[in-house]
Amino acid sequence: MVLAENSALLAVYPPPPVTFVEGDGVWLVDETGRRYLDFAAGIAVVGLGHRHPAPLAAAHAQLDTLWHASNLFGTEPAAALAARLSDRFGGARAFFCNSGAEANEAALKYARKTIGKPGVIALEGGFHGRTIGALGVTGQPAKRESFEPLLDGVRFARPNDIASLAAVAGDDVGLILLEPVLGEGGVIPLEREFVAVAARLADQLGALLCLDEVQAGVGRTGTFFAWEQLGVKPQLVTLAKGLANGLPIGCLLVAEDTAGGFAPGDHGSTFGGNPVTCAAACAVVDAVDEALLAAVRENGARLLAGLARLPGVVQARGAGLLVGAELETQAQPVVDAALAAGLVCLTSDTNVLRLAPPLVVVREHIDRALAILEEVME
Ligand code: PLP
Predict the structure, then answer these.
(1) Is the sign of the CA dihedral 108, 112, 118, 120 positive or negative?
(2) What is the pLDDT of residues 79-133, one digit of tens each?
(3) Which of 159, 301, 330, 360 has the most crowded Cβ, counting Cβ within 10 A?
């Protein structure tokens, strides 16, 4: 057992290198008053930047009105958010919960109830959360091993390897679960052809296709949903991180023509659909408009091109403002050095530097982040 010194927190995270006390747009401020350029956004969460006025005002107004009533009753913000997401999706029903793992749990239960087959195909390196069910479909042995046995009937194909998909297919499969960009597994964008084959396979097996857009959704890849760029419309989508700009939320979206699977009593969440969170999320969805999405695509391309030119980068890849640089060396020392130089960034897998800044970054922020990285990677 490793216990962090001077802390009453359970030691599930490494000791924090910095304590942040304030956020302001694309900047974080530590307890000494030092400012850091934030290219992590709370792990792809704070898409509109810290304390963006629109969700801030919406949450404040809702705090002054009604905090919680439970799902035994209707509340306006949850209904309004579901309607907005349905519009964006092109017809869908929403279940609200509090995290990405919970959204994926809902997807697993939805597939079991609707299709009646427990088998799941997921991806090696994929990440879907830390609860027993979500971990059971997470293709990262190091995160799973201490907690086995997990779910039965789950098998893992290799990302972008069509033959490996066919190899794990079986009649017991009720769900194919894919991350459009493997955010924790090395920032690997799925290829259109691979996703098209997965969708056809789901059809043939009578299974549902779910895209886990917990990290890639809500504009991060340059379209509201990442699937819009993949040429395939899934039956299920899970969202979380960016949806309420930092307030806790998760969501399972089910395409309207598949949406009859759950009946009252099948699933639920005390805090899911919380009015304050949903009010903030409505403001987020409204802010992720075509102008912002175009900027995400343009700035993402600039960031990607800049990363590819940095010393020690084997490959730069990603979509929109979810980008990674595979390094010749481990990524953590680069992340540590960047932090010391005033830039917050992330790892993904062991040798991939991951950048997921607020979607509102501008060219100057990108150039500054690249300059810091160039300095620390030389
Ligand atoms: N799915 C994906 C693709 C994620 O990136 C994550 C978190 O990183 C999760 C699910 C789990 O989300 P949460 O930590 O909110 O449970």
Answers:
(1) negative
(2) 999 999 999 999 999 999 999 999 999 999 999 999 999 999 999 999 999 999 9
(3) 159
Instruction: Judge whether 100 and 107 are in contact, CB under 8 Å.
Output: no
d(CA 179, ligand 1 centre) in Å: 10
pLDDT of 7 reads: 84
Q: Hey, what domains does the chain have and what are their CATH numbers?
A: 53-287 (3.40.640.10), 289-377 (3.90.1150.10)
Which residues approach ligand 1 with their CB closer than 6 A? 99-101, 104, 127-129, 179, 183-184, 212, 214-215, 240
Contacts of 307 (CB under 8 A, 6+ apart): 313, 316, 323, 325, 353, 355, 370, 373
DSSP tag of 247:
B
Phi, psi at 11, each rounded to 5°: -85, 55
CA dist 200 and 194 (Å) reads: 10
pTM, two decimals, is: 0.98
Of 32, 8, 36, 127, nearest in space to 339 by CA: 36
Strand runs (DSSP E) across 151-225, as ranges? 154-157, 173-178, 181-182, 188-189, 208-212
Residue 251 DSSP SS3: strand
Backbone angles phi, psi at 245, to 5 degrees: 55, 25
